[in-house]
Amino acid sequence: MTDTLVTQIAREALMMILILSLPTLAVSLLVGLVISILQATTQVQEQSLTFVPKIIAVFLTLAITAPWMIRLMTSYTTRLFKHLPNLTG
Q1: Using one digit for the tens of pLDDT, what is the confidence trace for 21-49?
Q2: I need a labelling partner for 42 at 20 to 30 A (CA). Which of 5, 26, 35, 74 fits?
Q3: Per the similarity annotation, which family is this (predicted)?
């Protein structure tokens, strides 16, 4: 196993993490931005007002994108396990 191969596997793993976390992080960012704008406009500074909509939005996003995420993770893992004999020997 060469250094280049290890670097490539680590790079693919980091890209997979980035791709899988992007939808949830983007939705959380957008909901937080909208809530912040509403709070600044109405001057209501309630702490639970920021967290509850974010949590609901993140759970909904995870529920909607779960099949896609699972399909992506299983294809990556299957590809990694198929190449495992070539990696060790």
Answers
A1: 999 999 999 999 999 898 888 888 777 78
A2: 26
A3: Belongs to the FliQ/MopD/SpaQ family.
- Pairwise CA distance, residues 84 & 89, whole Å: 9
Of 52, 63, 64, the C-alpha closest to 28 is 52
Q: How far is CA 47 from CA 4, 36, 56, in A?
A: 48, 11, 15
The answer to whether the Cα torsion of 54, 56, 65, 31 is positive or negative is: negative
pTM of the model: 0.79
| 53 to 18, 41, 61, 67: CA distances (angstroms) | 23, 17, 12, 23
72 within 8 A of 20, measured Cβ to Cβ = yes
Residues 37, 46: Cα–Cα separation, whole Å: 13
Does residue 17 contact residue 66 with C-beta atoms inside 8 Å? no
Residues in the chain: 89
